[in-house]
Amino acid sequence: MGCGILRLRTGCGHLGALRAQPLVSLLLTMICLFTYFIYCLTGSCCESAPAIGSFTARQPAGSVRPGSALMDPLPPGESVPRDLLTSGSVQGNLPGLSVSNPSGAPNPRGHNPQERNHLNGTTDIPVPRYGQEPSLGSLSVHNGYGSKKFPQAVIVGVKKGGTRALLEFLRVHPDVRALGAEPHFFDRCYDQGLDWYRNLMPRTLDSQITMEKTPSYFVTMEAPRRIYNMSRDTKLIVVVRNPVTRAISDYTQTLSKTPSLPSFQALAFKNTTTGPIDTTWSAIRIGIYAKHLENWLKYFPLSKFLFVSGERLVSDPAGEMGRVQDFLGLKRVITDKHFYFNETKGFPCLKKPEGSSKPRCLGKSKGRPHPNIDTKVLQRLREFYRPFNMKFYQMTGQNFGWD
Ligand SMILES: Nc1ncnc2c1ncn2[C@@H]1O[C@H](COP(=O)(O)OS(=O)(=O)O)[C@@H](OP(=O)(O)O)[C@H]1O
Q1: Residue 373, exposed/middle/buried by CB under 10 A (0-12, 13-18, 19+)?
Q2: Among 117, 296, 309, 129, which residue's Cα sits nearest to residue 223?
């Protein structure tokens, strides 16, 4: 047989004197191929090998991996953003295959992904990780199925409104997958590009909604235009809270990091308590909701918004979550059965948070005791916010009962 091969390579055996030389080169070639084969089997060549029907990790040029310094860590005391750990893992994909429902037909949950987001361009196909056998029984949201999509819904605000609680409650829903940490894409990281942003997202099935929350978007001038440019169909959720309490909560957070911070009163007023309120202080400015909303309404109609009451999220989490699920077109899965009131914490907590069977409350940075603020200061702040609150109630058609 070896001779046969040799004959073939030497032009069918007519040049007997030259037969030995090709045999050596053939042997050398075979040794090289064998060595390369062993090298590949150890996994060492996967990253550089060209993809000829093989798994490749598709990363856009210049992309930044999730979990890099650009990502905001969760506040101290909060759980590790599990999605951040999973969403950036290198997954296999096969070239030339389409990912999402190519017919555009509504899926069993009634969502049509193409209707939901015209920029839902999917980058990957559902391929199990190495060593994982695809099976319907194991079709859980954690096993690498699905594709990365732009979020169809974003919690855009407001800081200290209760955005973390809302996101954690929503993550209980099997049809919601959300990025754990705040990506700050539409305010701080926009230069990274949309591919970078999409790559941060957890994988979702077509029946699932991709979400993220970054409360600073609500007060970022460019955010509405940028989100509109990503998809005009994006659903926007704003958790609002009494602006006076919100300002104190904001101050409490800064104070916890900077104990030498001047008093709330010293920061809230330009001179003394009798002087004008300092609207350049972000803790005050963020609470002028009507002003910020005006900027968003230049791009999105009111129907694209859901305003969640931060107060009701504490007093009636199931009721508020009902509204949120309806707005997102989700089945009402999250109900009062999911919550219990933790007396020590003074807040509702989840009986079974996503990925855990143990009850859990939010971390220490949520639900912190606030410093006592002089009643005169509170009164002045209430008066300051009243006209803006009224305007906000009028714009949204909702009375939040802060006055
Ligand atoms: N269930 C539950 N558990 C704990 N805390 C809850 C909950 N629901 C709402 N809240 C309120 O959420 C406030 C923090 O708001 P955010 O999560 O939006 O803060 S942040 O902007 O992400 O830092 C936080 O503000 P503080 O009380 O000032 O800490 C809480 O009042």
Answers
A1: middle
A2: 296
Determine the pLDDT at residue 337. 96
Q: What is the mean pLDDT of residues 15-27?
A: 55
Q: Is 160 a catalytic residue?
A: yes
> Helix and strand tally (H, E) in the chain?
14, 9
The rounded Å distance from CA 380 to ligand 1 centre is: 24
Whether 108 has a pLDDT exceeding 60, the answer reads no
Domains and CATH numbers, the chain: 146-396 (3.40.50.300)
**Token couple for 353:** 């948070």
pTM for the full model?
0.70
Cα separation, 182 vs 168, in Å, equals 13
> What share of the chain has pLDDT > 90, as a percent?
61
Sign of CA dihedral 356, 359, 361, 363: negative
Cα 258 to Cα 124: distance, rounded to the nearest angstrom: 44
The span from the CA of 299 to the CA of 23, in Å, is 73
Is ipTM strictly over 0.85? yes
User: Which position among 160, 213, 235, 304 bears the catalytic label?
Assistant: 160
CA angle 263, 267, 270 (to 5 degrees): 135
Whether the predicted pLDDT of 101 surpasses 70: no
When pLDDT is averaged across residues 18-41 and rounded to a whole number, the result is 57
H or E element in which residue 306 lies: strand 305-309
**pLDDT recorded at residue 35:** 54
CB burial string 315-336: b at 16+ within 10 A, e below: eebeebbeebbebbebeeebee
The pLDDT value recorded for residue 29 is: 67
* Ligand 1 touching residue 165 (CB < 6 A): yes
The type of residue at 170 is L
Arithmetic mean of pLDDT, 305-324: 98
Report CA-CA distances (Å) from 108 to 68, 73, 121, 206, 371: 37, 36, 20, 10, 50
Q: Which of 78, 159, 160, 248 to mutate to test the pocket of ligand 1 (most atoms within 8 A of CB)?
A: 160
- Residue 55's Cβ-count burial label (10 Å; 0-12, 13-18, 19+) is middle
Q: Residues 228-243: pLDDT tens digits?
A: 999 999 999 999 999 9
